[in-house]
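Researcher: We're reviewing a set of sequences before deciding which ones to prioritize for further study. For each one, I'd like a predicted 3D structure that I can look through quickly. This is Arrestin C-terminal-like domain-containing protein. If possible, include the structure in token form so it fits the rest of the review sheet.
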Amino acid sequence: MGQLQEFVITFKDNKVVYSPGESVSGTLKITTAHAVLFKDIKVNCQGLCGVTSKINDTAWTVEEQYFSSTLSVADKGTLKWGDHSFPFKFLIPASLPPSFEGKYGKVMYRVRAFIDTSRFSKDYKTEKPFYLLSLLNLNEVPDIHGPSSSSITKKFTYLLGVKTGTVVLKAQSDMKGYTPGQVIKLTTEIDNQSGKTTGTVVACLMQKVTYQTKKPTIDLRTLAQVEGTGVKADKQVEWKEQIIVPPLPQSSLAGCGLINIEYFIQVSLKSPVASFLLPIHIGNISVDTTSAQPSRPPPHTPDPLCSSTKPTKLENSSRSEPSSYNQGPPTTTPTPAPRPASHPAPKPVPRIRVSTSSPIAPPAASPSAPPAEMDNLAMGARGLAIKAIPTKRHTQLGAFTRPVLL
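Model: Here's the predicted structure for Arrestin C-terminal-like domain-containing protein, in token form for your review sheet.
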């Protein structure tokens, strides 16, 4: 470094991760072996985005600057032999995109220092990066509540084009937004309306990063992949799987016009070839599922105009049954009239049947699961039993796989 033995930037408390609206403060440390004449010593704080069409190239094709602030810590003079310290402090603007680094560009923040020397002397510069973390609250994303679902119907030929068939592929994720560490619950239905066994069904968690150059560059990568078995001829099946969300940058970079990040689940059949996408969002604050639940109806309040006499179970049952079940007009007394001892009262005929169609059954009396004798089978739209299929392979690839370029 010539006349300088040390020329470094240090942040207060060695902090390197900040949030928008915070201050970046630290010290510029300079140690000289000899006296150094200088015209100016400056410290600059800068935030920018740069993109390129060549992988890992820092000669940006397009740049976008968010802010740049410069502080002059020393005017023209001489740095004597020894140690020198110059404090600095910068306020980070409140509306900035978070830090991001990809194959074809980055959103970066840094503090730089410059020593301008005399005309024929060497100038000095150094820099130190810091990182900006801006939390994405998924609850602020429009239409975030509820599942993400889609379907496709594929008609195809087989046996050298002699026969035709149809496959209906449907899939649904339990939510539209997730945070790293959460589990994506995916349910897929395959209705094979043909005489040929299908290929395997595959679900992939994908990341798509678009870099806005003259011709947009797309970096598409698979983060996780699960594969289920094929479906036999004329069968309806259901495939349930789970995918753990790895550590990932958040969806979109609010305030950045050059880099766009998207996530989706790709569900596909290998044969016949059929696929679709389920868009999802990745954020830092998870979706509040309680706010999306319908409110429960208020408890029933007795009519104050009704009699305060509590009816018996038999009377309550007879009021909720059709008129054909009634044996006479209602009486004003809560108990039946006494009968002679020589003629005992007959046993009442049972009026409540164990049936989901009973007139006194509650509105939600339909079963929530198939009967036990169905062996966990459900009936599909075509009247066929739907059975679960197993998973052949589950691969959690993480966020740093080899990109696939489109």
